[in-house]
UniProtKB/TrEMBL annotation, chain A:
Membrane-spanning parts: 7-28, 71-95, 107-125, 131-150, 188-214, 234-257
InterPro entries listed in its UniProt record: BP-dependent_transpt_permease, MetI-like, MetI-like_sf
Pfam families in alphabetical order: BPD_transp_1 (PF00528)
Family label: Belongs to the binding-protein-dependent transport system permease family.
Keywords, alphabetical: Cell membrane, Membrane, Transmembrane, Transmembrane helix, Transport
GO biological process terms held by the UniProt record: transmembrane transport
SUPFAM superfamilies: MetI-like
Subcellular locations according to the entry: Cell membrane
Matching PROSITE patterns: ABC_TM1 (PS50928)
Domain ABC transmembrane type-1: 67-257
Protein name: Glutathione transport system permease protein GsiD
UniProtKB/TrEMBL annotation, chain B:
A Pfam entry, by short name: SBP_bac_5
InterPro entries hit by this protein: Peptide/Ni-bd, SBP_5, SBP_5_dom
GO BP terms, alphabetized: peptide transport
Domain Solute-binding protein family: 67-395
Organism for this UniProt entry: Boseongicola aestuarii
Signal peptide boundaries: 1-21
Keywords recorded for this protein, A-Z: Signal
A GO CC annotation given for this chain: ATP-binding cassette (ABC) transporter complex
Name by which UniProt lists this protein: Heme-binding protein A
């Protein structure tokens, strides 16, 4: 049970926000598109469990829809990172030492050489701020993460006997990569994907905070934080709600990632008990 | 330990208060000037730092917007209103020691109105035919047509007197005649001025003045609270003002400004070409909600492009009272029963960013969908102001008496009404005050009835001042922070 503690806490926390995001498609406590200036900056009451913001919108509803924005952006961004990074990594490993391997490797170094947020700001500043550009920006710096991880692990697999057997039986490099290498990497990718997911949520919040993420009126945790910044001494609950939402989601996903690694990697599990 | 620290802190404060005589002033402003030549850029920050402090014109604005003598101690106007003879103060020198005389005035005005002049307000000089130096202390200006606001025009920061000798380096080393001399500019941080000991008029009480650039509202709050700055002009976060008001260390001055904040409408873009659609916009918007929600109650609703504190202001807010039902029926009449989608481009100030979200919500209620994009100033100037690529935008027009922009069909909101253009031409030529008032009222009514833009509110200028600072202008009749009369109370 102890082994699964991280997993359970992580899954519960992140599951909570996923559920909140899903529920928000069907129902939110209040319509956030209609501003109610007279009701602004109310402290939490039973009617508004998290209070109202500077436009009189219900903060609970804002956090729920904000979860949708964050999760959607992070999900697609990690998807881009995996979708491009994994094939690149597989190709590089399959042709170790070739020009292709060099190009992919140096390309990864290039992207890695810049701090990830800097790249994201560069992209959104060039192409204009929007949720789509934020997704692309975050997706791009996820690519080398997956490419490197895939290449490194695939290289060690290529030396294994079952791969030899597959080669001897005449399978092409592409088929071996897809049918034998990839399935053996899936645990690793899921764990890494979870971690990257939490980083992507942080990145989305950071971009929105500086105004380069989803544009108003789409709620986003980062922009909620930025909006409440000057009012923090007047109404701290405005910043507290999105701030804690980010903290708990990221914490939950990290714990989930750790927990999954414990489950998937028998060597770690033995070591811990 | 805590008690001890507290006591020593109090002791320190008392000691500081008792010994330190205040002689300098640190002023926080939001934007840094791009350079220091008020005669070749529109940036208000240049005037905020330099107007009246370093550079002076023939006439100057008083704290209430009145036009007072500046470098010209008196003037005579010919019967036909075409010839102005200015008598200059004698013994005025520039900060580099050179004399300010009629030749400098001729040079400054000729430079400003020249064909290749970079002056941002060339219209101020449009009627000038000739400028002549009669003798070293007399200048005669001849106009091609009478202009009732000529003396007003000469008070603008764009019409200050500069010297032939120092014009070369004016952008980095401004040499004027004012009560303060430019001393140092730490780019990205501050500009320092020191008292001009050889000032021709009443010398300034402050020995030095420093302008610090703080655009971030949170940083502004922190700087003020820590008393790092003594005055914050045009404080960026109205939500914090109650806190300063409640704090005995500070005083909050809420002044009126020349900033008509409008929902600017691209008059050449479908569907805004239809007056019914523009009228629907005007009725769809609840001004008070915007003032409360975006400005925390600071601001006066307006119904036309004119400052309410001006004696010639006509209250036309009833022309566009909040009536969403009327807005919906107007839209239906114009052929948009289900509304339409347009862009709403917002520059950085909070009146635009917050106001934009409120306006988007109010427009949505009558069926108009807006795509909001938040732009930085440079992007806004490029896309909206120069590129005219927008449906709606929110901006505050802070120039004084700028209703004339509606007579410029190429101006970014692209309002083209020959009757109005004729009216403004008549107004410019008219010198009789009573007739001018009448024409000004007509101009206000025309643009209100044409629903050119949605006139939202007059921007209030909140200035946070440390207790003991006296003489700060509460109002902003022009973009100036005149420190010549500011002092610390004893």
């Amino acid at each position: 049970m102890n082994t699964y503690r991280n997993l359970v806490i992580g899954a519960t926390l992140s599951g909570l926000f996923v559920i909140a995001a899903l529920v928000s498609f069907l129902w939110v406590p209040y319509d956030i598109e209609n501003l109610n200036i007279a009701e602004r900056m109310r402290t939490p009451t039973p009617a508004h469990p998290l209070g109202t913001d500077h436009f009189g919108r219900d903060i609970l509803s804002m956090v729920m829809i904000g979860a949708r924005t964050s999760i959607a952006v992070a999900f697609v961004a990690v998807g881009i990172g995996m979708g491009l990074g994994v094939p690149l990594g597989l190709a590089a490993a399959a042709h170790k030492g070739s020009l292709l391997d060099e190009v992919i490797g140096r390309g990864n170094d290039l992207v890695f050489a810049f701090p990830s947020l800097l790249i994201a700001i560069l992209i959104t500043a060039t192409f204009g701020p929007s949720a789509v550009n934020a997704i692309i920006a975050i997706g791009i710096f996820n690519v080398p993460v997956f490419a490197r991880l895939t290449r490194g692990s695939a290289l060690s697999l290529w030396k294994r006997e079952f791969i030899m057997a597959a080669r001897v039986s005449g399978k092409t490099t592409v088929r071996i990569s897809i049918e034998h290498i990839l399935p053996n990497l899936s645990n690793l990718l899921i764990v890494q994907g979870t971690i990257q997911f939490s980083l992507a949520i942080l990145a989305e919040a950071a971009l929105s905070y500086v105004g380069l993420g989803a544009q108003p009126p789409t709620p986003s945790w980062g922009r909620m934080l930025a909006d409440s910044q000057t009012m923090i001494s007047l109404a701290p609950h405005l910043a507290l709600a999105p701030g804690l939402a980010i903290v708990f989601t990221v914490l939950g996903l990290n714990l989930l990632g750790d927990g999954l690694r414990d489950v998937f990697d028998p060597r770690l599990r033995r070591g811990r008990t | 330990m805590n008690v001890k620290t507290l006591t020593s802190a109090i002791a320190l404060t008392l000691a500081a208060g008792a010994t330190q005589a205040e002689t300098g002033l640190i002023v926080g402003i939001q934007l840094e000037p791009p350079h220091l030549d008020p005669t070749s850029a529109a940036a208000g920050a240049i005037d905020q730092v330099l107007y009246s402090n370093v550079f002076e014109g023939l006439t100057r604005f008083g704290p209430d917007g009145s036009v007072n003598p500046g470098l010209a101690e008196s003037w005579e106007i010919s019967e036909d209103g075409l010839t102005y003879t200015f008598k200059l103060h004698e013994g005025v020198t520039f900060h580099d020691g050179t004399t300010m005389d009629a030749d400098d005035v001729v040079f400054s005005l000729d430079r400003a109105r020249a064909e290749d002049s970079a002056n941002a307000q060339k219209a101020l000089f449009a009627e000038i035919k000739t400028v002549e130096a009669v003798d070293p202390s007399t200048v005669r200006v001849t106009l091609s047509s009478a202009n009732g606001s000529f003396l007003f025009n000469m008070a603008w920061g764009d019409a200050v007197i500069v010297a032939t000798e120092s014009i070369e380096d004016i952008k980095t080393m401004p040499i004027g005649t004012g009560a303060f001399k430019f001393s140092n500019w730490v780019q990205g941080d501050q500009i320092e001025l020191v008292r001009n000991e050889n000032y021709w008029g009443t010398p300034a009480s402050l020995e030095s003045a420093t302008f610090k650039f703080i655009s971030d509202p949170t940083a502004a709050f922190a700087a003020m609270m820590a008393e790092d700055v003594d005055v914050f002009y045009s404080y960026p976060a109205p939500e914090n003002l109650p806190q300063f008001e409640a704090d005995p260390r500070f005083e909050v001055l809420v002044g009126s400004s020349e900033g008509e904040t409008i929902l600017s409408t691209n008059n050449l873009m479908e569907p805004f070409t239809d007056i019914r659609v523009r009228k629907a916009l005007a009725h769809a918007i609840d001004r008070q909600a915007i003032i409360d929600g975006a400005m925390f109650g600071l601001g006066t609703p307006i119904g036309t492009h004119f400052a309410p504190h001006n004696p010639d202001y006509v209250d036309l807010t009833a022309n566009s009272q909040y009536d969403p039902e009327l807005a919906k029926s107007l839209l239906a009449e114009a052929g948009y029963p289900d509304g339409f989608t347009t862009t709403l481009k917002l520059p950085p100030p909070s009146y635009a960013r917050r106001g934009g979200e409120i306006i988007a919500s109010q427009l949505r209620a009558v069926g108009i969908q807006t795509e909001i994009s938040n732009l930085e100033w440079a992007q806004w100037l490029e896309q909206v102001f120069r590129g005219k690529d927008f449906g709606l935008t929110i901006v505050s027009h802070t120039e004084p008496f700028d209703i004339g922009i509606y007579a410029r069909p190429d101006y970014y909101f692209q309002y083209d009404n020959p009757d109005f253009q004729k009216l403004i031409a008549d107004l410019t030529a008219e010198t009789d005050p009573a007739k001018r008032s009448e024409l000004i009222a007509m101009a206000q009514t025309i643009i209100s009835n044409d629903y050119v833009n949605v006139y939202l509110f007059q921007l209030a200028v909140p200035t946070v001042v440390k207790a003991g600072v006296q003489g700060i202008w509460p109002d902003a009749p022009t973009q100036a922070i005149d420190l010549t009369v500011v002092s610390w109370s004893k």
